Amino acid sequence: MSERHTIRQQIRQARRQLSQTQQQAAATSIVQRVAHTPHLAAAGKVALYLANDGELNPQSLIDWYWANGTQVYLPVLHPFSSGHLLFLRYDPNTSMVENRFGIAEPKLDIRLLAFKNELDIIYTPLVAFDASGNRIGMGGGFYDRTLAAWRQGLGPRPVGLAHDCQQLPAIPVDSWDIPLPELITPKQHWRW
């Protein structure tokens, strides 16, 4: 078993053990951190995600952005380009479907599509991170492919969202991994 696989198992287990009260407190803290960070609070178009498997739940942040007039987008598995994501506009009335991983996503409608370079921020879920901005995702590489343009100075700013229990002293890094320039947990806000 690889080190990354072991990390995924351990951290996913840790975040699934968080109580509903801990999850809600984390969500509230994230909204407060974003609201007090000018470049995040002022974003006009942001991509978020719907929580799965104990991930930090950004629904309160989605609601906050909606209340402030920000357009919110969710990731959708690309139907023709395996391993890639599209981003579709999301609001309370968006028609949703379940993807092959059992995660709800907006029903594909080209009229709701935003190209990555139209987004200001892509909030990324993750399994584990370290104090250098390295992250481990679920293993499919979807966000690494999506954020590859950021590495070249193009595209929206990636911002990781995680529980504090997801931090490790160091994580193994592969050549295709895209480190995050910014990450928020309930207790800390990192910028690299």
From TrEMBL:
The keyword Nucleotide-binding applies. It is an enzyme of class 6 (ligase). It catalyses: (6S)-5-formyl-5,6,7,8-tetrahydrofolate + ATP = (6R)-5,10-methenyltetrahydrofolate + ADP + phosphate. Its EC number is 6.3.3.2. SUPFAM superfamilies: NagB/RpiA/CoA transferase-like. The keyword ATP-binding applies. It holds the Pfam family 5-FTHF_cyc-lig. Its cofactor is Mg(2+). InterPro entries: FTHF_cligase, FTHF_cligase-like_sf, NagB/RpiA_transferase-like. Keywords: ATP-binding, Magnesium, Metal-binding, Nucleotide-binding. PANTHER family: 5-FORMYLTETRAHYDROFOLATE CYCLO-LIGASE, ATPASE INHIBITOR/5-FORMYLTETRAHYDROFOLATE CYCLO-LIGASE. Belongs to the 5-formyltetrahydrofolate cyclo-ligase family. NCBIfam families: MTHFS_bact (TIGR02727). This is 5-formyltetrahydrofolate cyclo-ligase.
